[in-house]
Amino acid sequence: MHKIGILGAGLISRSHAESIRSLDNAVLTAVADIREEAGQRFADEYGCAYYQDADELLKQADVEVVIIALPTFLHGKYVELCAQYGKHVLCEKPVEMTVEATQRMLDQVKEAGIIFMVGQVVRFWSGYTEIKELYESGELGQVHMAFASRCSTLPDWGNEWLLHPEKGAGAICDMHVHDVDFLRDLFGEIDSVYCLANKDHTGCWNHAMSSISFKSGEKAVAEAAFTMSDGYPFTMFFKAAGTKGTVEFTYKAGYNIGERDASTSELRLYQKNRQPVIRKLEQHDPYANQLRYFLSCVDAGEQPARVPHQENLEVIRAIAAIRESAETGEILTLTS
Question: Could you report the per-residue pLDDT of 93-151, keeping only the tens digit for each?
């Protein structure tokens, strides 16, 4: 039985706690949050111990694995702390705010010898997993162009740091990182990026359109937005047109990604001389799928092949280049 602690008692922590609850080989034993009321309420709801200080949790609680669900700018500090205590870590995305901070984190993880994975949950999400299977099986052929979109209203559930230009950087980091990561997983190394974006009153680029070219020859456009009007549901969309087929995926949740119970999800596949295939997708909990895989890596003592450390670094490098392109208006080639 894997004993798990969570750092942070915010919105995304509930998705992780529910995923732990759904597995028969995991138990949530502790949570830490500097906000005593929020942390204690979370602990009471999920039947675990509460600590106000993360260091005290790591010293005193019976935990083997730690899920870091803290603001992005704190990830490096707490991954390092977990590494010092020898705890395996599943860390929320984006893994860090800069390439340099990400490299430091990965160096610390390697030195400590812990199993570490970034929570790029889209790699485990129904719809996206089917798209990857279609592409890798050759059913789409060579993809001419892909389009990925992730849009919602401006979040207002207490994550003030998310809309700080340096601590969270808004949609261009928090939302864009999902699709940049999935496209990197699908098509391989990124060659160049160009971004058109709108900076709003928060000082963040909260609506961005990025064109991405891959070394494999594929091209894509990715959209991320926190600018939708009131009532607009959290929406994900993906389309890829290839020499053998076109796939289209649509997902709509509630006001935020945590409101998945009433979501609608559909995948359509179009191929020459065939009737279109329309699938209403069953939404298995992607956070449970992600955690199940991560714990299998812990059991095997192996770093996660499905979310490689080097790709984490490449994705943050791409996000940094996209942010620079938004500022300068230039096409930027990525260098390793």
Answer: 999 999 999 999 999 999 999 999 999 999 999 999 999 999 999 999 999 999 999 99
pTM of the predicted model, to two decimals? Answer: 0.94
φ and ψ at 17, to 5 degrees? -65, -40
Q: Are 132 and 186 in contact (CB under 8 A)?
A: yes
For the chain, count helices (H), then strands (E). Answer: 10, 15
Domain boundaries 2-119, CATH class: alpha beta
Pairing type for strands 49-51 and 143-153 reads unpaired
Structure tokens at 80: 């390092």
Q: How far apart are CA 174 and CA 168, in angstroms?
A: 7
Q: How far apart are CA 69 and CA 127, in angstroms?
A: 24
Domain residue extents for the chain: 2-119, 123-288+317-333
Taking the C-alpha atoms of residue 28 and residue 48, their distance in angstroms, rounded to an integer, is: 6
Annotate 186-210 with b (16+ C-beta within 10 A) or e (fewer): bbeebebbbbebebeebebbbbbbb
pLDDT in tens, 58-93: 999 999 999 999 999 999 999 999 999 999 999 999
> Is 123-288+317-333 in CATH node 1.10.730.10?
no
d(CA 159, CA 204): 14
